[in-house]
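[audit] Reproducing an earlier prediction to check determinism. Same input, same settings, fresh worker. If the tokens differ from the archived copy the diff job will pick it up downstream; this log only records the rerun itself.
[audit] input (186 residues):
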Amino acid sequence: MPALHPRATHLVNSTRSPKFGSRSLRHGSSLYPRPKGIAITESDPNPYASPRDHADENIALESSTFLTPRRGPTMTIAIGALIGLMIGFVVFLKLLFPPGFLGFIPGAALGGLFYRFASASLPVDPKARRGRYTCAVVTVFLVPAIVGVLTYKYEEGVSITILTILLGIAFATGIVVAGDRRPNQE
């Protein structure tokens, strides 16, 4: 047991706690000694020291990596499709042009193109080509087939399936256009 302050030993040895206004705690005695000061060791970093030399590392400027994607093209394609859908909705309302609702198709393709240009500095992923075409086939054929099976007995089942086919075509176009460059998954 560590040595305690002479006035604090009765607190450890007694079973009852001291009263709030008791003499032992009122006159400055304490269970723990107060620190005398803060010691600065040599391991503390010096805020005024120059940064270490990074000549051997490949460091890109932050301005050139601002638009570089950190993940795959999925979010870029989805955001492009939403922007295209909003623009198509405005065209529909202003001109009463029903094909304006199909604005998500060029929007998804433009989202894929944006990813392609933004990821120009990324390395080519050798597995991306096969995965990209597999994902495109799944979005064009498998997802609409599942939706068609689930909605075939309802009146709107055919129209929902056609809409799913159009969405699949839009996303497949964006995926194919996006290219094979992916960020490192290290």
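[audit] rerun output stored. Observation attached for the diff report: The CA atoms of residues 142 and 168 lie 9 Å apart.
[audit] end
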